[in-house]
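Most newcomers find our protein records easier to grasp once they have seen one. Sequence and backbone structure share a record, each on its own labelled line. Nothing more is needed to start thinking about how sequence determines fold. As an example, a complete record with its sequence and its structure tokens follows.
=====
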Amino acid sequence: MGPAELVQKISISAESPRGSESGGAALAGADGAAGGSWRHKCAAYVLALRPWSFSASLTPVALGSALAYRAEGALDPGLLLGSAVTVLAVHGAGNLVNTYYDFSKGIDHKKSDDRTLVDQILEPQDVVRFGVFLYTVGCVCAAGLYAVSTLKLEHLALIYFGGLSSSFLYTGGIGFKYVALGDVVILITFGPLAVEFAHAVQVGYLSLTPLLYAVPLALSTEAILHSNNTRDMESDRQAGIVTLAILIGPTFSYMLYTVLLFLPYLIFCVLATRYTISMALPLLTIPMAFSLERQFRSQNFNKIPQRTAKLNLLLGLFYVFGITLAPAGALPKL
């Protein structure tokens, strides 16, 4: 076969339908792989945010807004949405900071709950960029809230940047988590601070009342963190960090978890018997609390932070409904 015949045969083969189909299939396969890779990347970013923990930021916003509605008789849905997005953005960024520093310090490993960086699902620079993006979104939303709310700039900045700083310093910078102060940071940030933020944006001023009503929800939120730290007690000790669970040991950790679970119900019982029966709504979640207590006592920590977060969400929603349904003037200072 001469060179001219060989070239002609190759040309005919390339122009044949079978050759076109093969090329098209290869191209479609490449496009499918690219699409699958993009979907996998998006799923990895969502996973890194730990969305199961977002009840800790959404319920305080709902509570603060419900308190504002009960106090003022009106609620701005736009401010509620803006507050929720702002708090969620800062919370998500804080989770990414936690992922980055836990990996950098060698705390996360193959058996950790968060293996985003350990399994190389994302690269460290991806987590950093995503965290910066979310902090930026939070700042833009906070600026938007200032533009439409009557709250003074200095008051909004005090609460917002207090929450932003806490979310970063929990593991970044000082690293409160690593010196047994993480529980204090979470108790304040995802309790009184977030509730006060949502309330102040709605009513336009600061008040002590939201801080008091935030206590039951803050205790429930702290239970999420404490269950997580108790589960990770051994790995944290090996990594050389100190948490409250390590300081007090397994027995007292169980006792503290039990208090964090059931003390909110005692507060709700007092509110329901002395003020309005609608505050008994959160008591519907007590069976879940007893189930979690038994699981914790048996030292079966599988998915217990996620289950505690689910309880936190339901308890918070019933708490919000209870306040919203309460007759005007029935609750103290509202």
Summary: Confidence is low (pLDDT under 50) at residues 2-22, 24-28. DSSP finds 13 helices and no strands in the chain.
